Each structure stands twice: as structure tokens, then as C-alpha cells.
């Protein structure tokens, strides 16, 4: 697998806003190019005139699902604020089920509908199913050769200055990220590399061969390992609505994340000990989203305070967009690992 990531990070950024700003470099007279651009603006292919089926409630086109062990690892280092949730619409009655997998739009196999907050949420054995992934706060970034930065939803661990991952060489680096875009190719799904090439030109996916990737976790293998099932649907009232609106609070995230950390791979079993420990771990330290920065300084990780700072700066910036280098003050000064830059990379 060979990719050209310098100046890109398209798989770590929701860059649809650049297309809306007129930065789409494709030729809409080409039918295939136009199809891809429509796919990028609405990556899950839902028609606004129809009821969504088996599609995520959120709109993140490059959601990174974490395994149970990865969820636990983030909690243990105090970085629970990096985590967020994904629920799905239930499949239509009579529609053939499909396997859950690594691509961002996949939903649980044999999903049933559980009504929560006015949504028919995909479920397994009557339990709402969900992924745990990484949050994308707004950051000033200038990918794809752009000279001026733009506020875009960007992975919490992406350095806006170098467009490199801060945890790439760390034990916390998710398996899903290390296997990208190999998983997509194995599943015969379009990669973000190809979408970037189509919209902005250049060569990103340099070699598209792939083997038989380990860790894909399809079907029942995913349950309790990457696909989590909440045993108490009533506890998600309000959470599902706010997940669909992109307005989850720390307390909203704590309940399902604790279930994920307490799950048992291959089963629907939940460890009460791990559940209580994980929920306590995520809620301790204060500093809920949008809260006073001073209340967040007890957090063990730089992640929560940095996210809140990015959100505040974006709200207050108006039309003025800071240079990506402001990340030194927002992230590095709080303890975020620095990235090496691209000098010396071939």
C-alpha cells in the first residue's frame, strides 16, 4: 500500500466545506466526476426525499471506529474527551441485511429498529448499536495546496500546521487509521485518496493493491469488539437526538462509551465493574463542552482543553481565520506531541 499524504490529510478532515466555497476543481461535464462530487457532498447517498435507511445519524464522512481495547486505552490516559458516538437509522422493512464493517457508512447486520427520540435506531437483539470514534473539532487548516486556512472539522489528533497525526507513532494510534485505505480497498469501497484526487487533482493513492487485512471485524465478530450494543435503550433518550444534531455533551458520551469499554467481544455481555470504572473515568476532571476553560485545567490530557479552546476560537473568530500555527498555543503548550514535518520524507 502506497499513498501520498503530504499536504492532504483528507481522511482526517471533513473537507466538504471547501467544495461549497467553490474550491471544487472537477469538471461537472464528466458524468463520473459529477457523481463523485455529489457523493462527497452527501457521502452516504441518501435522497432528501426518502427516509434514510441504515445510514449514520451523524454526517461525518470519515468516521474512525475504535475497538473496545482502544476505547479503554484512551480512557486510561485521561483522553476520553477525544471520543464520540455513531448511531444508525434502522434498515427498511424487507431490505436485505448487510455485514457491519470498517467503512464509515456500514450498519449492524440483521439490525432491528428501536424508537428513540423520534428515530428508528439500528439495533441488535433490541439493543441500540453504535460505534465509538474520534471527534472532529473545528481547526484552521489549509489542505490540498490551499494558501489560506479555513475552519473545518478536523480530527482531534491532527496537527493543523503539518497535517500529520500527533499519535501516529504512539500506542494509541487506532488500528483503523493504520489500515487505511487498505480496508476500503478490501471492501471495494471508494477511498478518500480517490475523492481528493477527483476534486483537487494530484496523485494520492499511488498503489492500490491489498492483501487480506487482519482486524476488519465483519458481522458477528464485530459485536462487543467494535460494534457495541446498549442494553438499556431508555438511557439513550435525548442522547440520540443530540448525536444526530452534533450536540453531544460529555455526559451524553459517557454512558455509551462506558458500555463500549465494558463490552465483551463476540457477545452482548456487559461487565458492570468496567462500566462503572469507565463512566467515572470519563466524567472526572470537569470541563464539559462549552464550559469555562478554568474548570478544565484538572484534565489529565491536553485533549479536552484543546477541543474547548478550538470551539471557542471558532465561535469568536468571525471572518478572521488564524494561521494553523496557532495550534502551538492551543495544543502543544498543553502537552500535545509535536509532529516531525515532511522534511526527509520521500
Which properties best describe this structure?
single chain; 346 residues; two-stranded antiparallel ribbon
Give an overview in words.
- The chain is of the alpha+beta class and 346 residues long.
- It has 11 helices and 11 strands.
- Helix 8 runs antiparallel to helix 9 (272-283).
- The two termini are 15 Å apart.
- A hairpin with a 2-residue loop joins strand 3 and strand 4 (119-124).
- The protein has helices at residues 16-20, 31-41, 68-76, 175-178, 182-186, 192-200, 239-245, 250-261, 272-283, 303-317, 327-330, and strands at 2-3, 83-86, 112-116, 119-124, 127-134, 138-141, 150-153, 158-159, 164-165, 205-207, 228-229.
- It has one domain.
- Strands 2, 3, 4, 5 and 11 form a 5-stranded antiparallel β-sheet that branches.
Write the layout of secondary structure elements.
Blueprint: E1 2-3, H1 16-20, H2 31-41, H3 68-76, E2 83-86, E3 112-116, E4 119-124, E5 127-134, E6 138-141, E7 150-153, E8 158-159, E9 164-165, H4 175-178, H5 182-186, H6 192-200, E10 205-207, E11 228-229, H7 239-245, H8 250-261, H9 272-283, H10 303-317, H11 327-330
Antiparallel strand pairs: 1-10, 2-5, 3-4, 4-5, 5-11, 6-7, 8-9
| Helical proportion, percent range | 25-40%
Shape descriptor: globular
Give the end-to-end Cα distance, rounded to a whole number of Å.
Answer: 15 Å
Number of domains: 1
Structural class: alpha+beta
> Count the strands?
11
Report the total helices.
Answer: 11
Instruction: Encode the helix/strand succession as letters.
Output: EHHHEEEEEEEEHHHEEHHHHH
Radius of gyration: 20 Å
Q: What is the strand content?
A: 5-15%
Rounded average pLDDT: 84
The biggest sheet amounts to: 5 strands, antiparallel
**Uncertain spans:** 22-30, 32-41, 43-51, 96-107, 290-298
